[in-house]
Amino acid sequence: xxxxxxxxxxxxxxxxxxxxxxxxxxxxxxxxxxxxxxxxxxxxxxxxxxxxxxxxxxxxxxxxxxxxxxxxxxxxxxxxxxxxxxxxxxxxxxxxxxxxxxxxxxxxxxxxxxxxxxxxxxxxxxxxxxxxxxxxxxxxxxxxxxxxxxxxxxxxxxxxxxxxxxxxxxxxxxxxxxxxxxxxxxxxxxxxxxxxxxxxxxxxxxxxxxxxxxxxxxxxxxxxxxxxxxxxxxxxxxxxx
Length: 241
Fold this sequence. Notes:
The chain is of the alpha/beta class. It has helices at residues 19-26, 43-51, 64-70, 113-123, 140-145, 152-167, 188-196, 207-218; strands at residues 33-37, 56-60, 79-82, 96-102, 124-135, 171-185, 221-222, 225-239.
């Protein structure tokens, strides 16, 4: 199977699903040693630790500000928080059953993409899995974001990197899966705080661009709030023997 081009949005009708439902459908996490790269605020980390039978999770985040916040989490005994990037994983060879990246591979710098995928291969146990979930470059949420942070190039680089890793024999593709998850926001302030003011990216918007972003966001309002369907693609890779 060939890795599809990132601009393909998958089947015309994609299932609305949660990331955790997809994870649990595609993987067995019982007693697994898991490495999550780019854990962010550890929202998915928490679900993995609390809702599955994993043995332990190393949750790594390159953003030092967010990592320091994560260190204050005291109710996840299975989780250890560390700070490093995918291109320099500070773990032993053949250490993990599963490596997971949720919307974070495209944040790896292009010149470091191949190194990052080799590092994932290195730390996986023989025949271990890499679960890579990435947003597809489409949808109304993306259309607003591209006004100030166009990710077409970096998302293409991420999927091209996966294709090279498969072509070079590091991984085999076990499954590719397309789905949509739903993000609901209740106010412009929530979007501003959660998207524009994140600590890992310094978004600097002119007054004109900020006004356009706000207008486009407010146009998406409904009685349920500001509801966005986000198309995603998951590549489930198995480490080649």
